[in-house]
Design goal:
Layout (H helix, E strand, L loop, with lengths): L3 E5 L11 E8 L2 H14 L3 E4 L5 E3 L3 E9 L4 E4 L2 E5 L4 H10 L14 H6 L15 E8 L2 E6 L19 E8 L5 H18 L5 E4 L10 H7 L6 E2 L2 E3 L6 E4 L5 H15 L8 E3 L8
Parallel strand pairs: 2-5, 3-5, 4-15
Antiparallel strand pairs: 1-2, 6-7, 7-10, 8-9, 8-10, 11-14, 12-13, 13-14
The structure holds flavin-adenine dinucleotide.
Length: 288
């Protein structure tokens, strides 16, 4: 494993926003994870896990942390049991399993890695299917130790998991239980879901839904749309015309623009919308 200094983070996020990581490393083995944790401890820096950056942006300066990316991405199938490493792309897992008659199609069209999906329990909206539906166990490196947690211990909820509350957890792999169905039917569903998304969502520099649905299930896009904010801009950051809960970087958008825009959206809607996206500040902490 190589630990690099001052590595640009913007190209590692789908929104293309962020400054540099003080330190950055790609983790291929469990030994790499242990060494990275040791390095960060010696430097008294937090470890920040990054997947595909499809739900994350970083502050514009230097992020005082060791930013790590799990690149281990194997997928092992045995009957209906699937063992998948955190660096695997979720879309690749969905299509790979479909060919083998295993149905993970409700998770179609969600960019990012398995690690990111476990962390935020990615899935459909507040009443849809989420990743936790398929999870049996999750293996995580936590405070210097390897642990395998059962689904119940992961504390999953709508875009929630216990990992959001723990200090620097590093998700390594998951065991999933995936139901069987005819490959052709699964592939048809995947095609239909991708088509639906292409109509409803922008495909540009975005990080997906910025805010969670309200506790009563009202989608955040509805709240933002009702306030007339589609197309609203701060600098090069814009509320998408196509989907009011997607923020778009239309050019050289910055973290400061994005932070300003979310403040304005909360003020103008009069609603304390909770962030789904991760806004990582220079200190490594998150915007509330
Ligand atoms: C066009 C578009 C559509 C989207 N649609 C959906 C949708 O329908 N449903 C949905 O749920 N999301 C959606 N998203 C958001 C995003 O795809 C998900 O949140 C995804 O699961 C993030 O995965 P990632 O690997 O990119 O995570 P990142 O953005 O890299 O990270 C997200 C969080 O997970 C943590 N993390 C990532 N990997 C690890 C790891 N190995 N160990 C510990 N922590 C880790 C990071 O620290 C960070 O806090 C969409 C995004 C886009 C751009």
């Amino acid at each position: 494993m190589q630990i690099q200094e001052l590595i640009p983070l913007a190209p590692r996020t789908t929104m293309r926003i962020g400054g540099n990581a003080r330190y950055y490393a790609e983790l291929q083995t469990q030994r790499d994870v242990e060494e990275a944790a040791q390095f960060a401890r010696e430097k008294s820096l937090p470890v920040i896990a990054l997947g595909a950056g499809s739900n994350t942006i970083f502050a514009d300066g230097i992020i005082e942390a060791l930013v790590v990316r799990v690149v281990a991405n194997s997928i092992e199938v045995s009957g209906n049991t699937v063992r998948v490493e955190a660096g695997a792309s979720l879309a690749t897992v969905v299509t790979h399993l479909a060919k083998r008659g295993l149905d993970l199609s409700p998770l179609t069209g969600i960019p990012g890695t398995v690690g990111g999906a476990i962390f935020g329990n990615a899935g459909q909206g507040p009443r849809g299917t989420w990743l936790d539906h398929f999870v049996q166990t999750v293996t995580v490196f936590l405070e210097g130790e390897w642990k395998t947690l059962s689904r119940e211990e992961c504390g999953f909820g709508y875009r929630e998991s216990i990992f959001k509350k723990l200090k620097n957890p590093l998700l390594w792999k998951a065991t999933l239980s995936v139901p069987s169905r005819a490959a052709r039917e699964i592939e048809q569903d995947i095609g239909a879901l991708l088509k639906k998304r292409s109509v409803a969502q922008p495909f540009t520099r975005t990080a997906g839904s910025c805010f969670k649905a309200l506790p009563d299930g009202t989608p955040a896009w509805k709240v933002i749309d009702t306030a007339g904010l589609k197309g609203y801009r701060v600098g090069d950051l814009q509320v998408s015309d196509k989907h009011a809960n997607f923020l778009i970087n239309t050019g050289n958008g910055t973290f400061a623009d994005a932070a300003h825009l979310i403040t304005e959206i909360r003020e103008k809607t009069g609603t304390p919308l909770e962030l789904e996206m991760r806004f990582v500040e220079e200190s490594g902490s998150l915007l509330p």
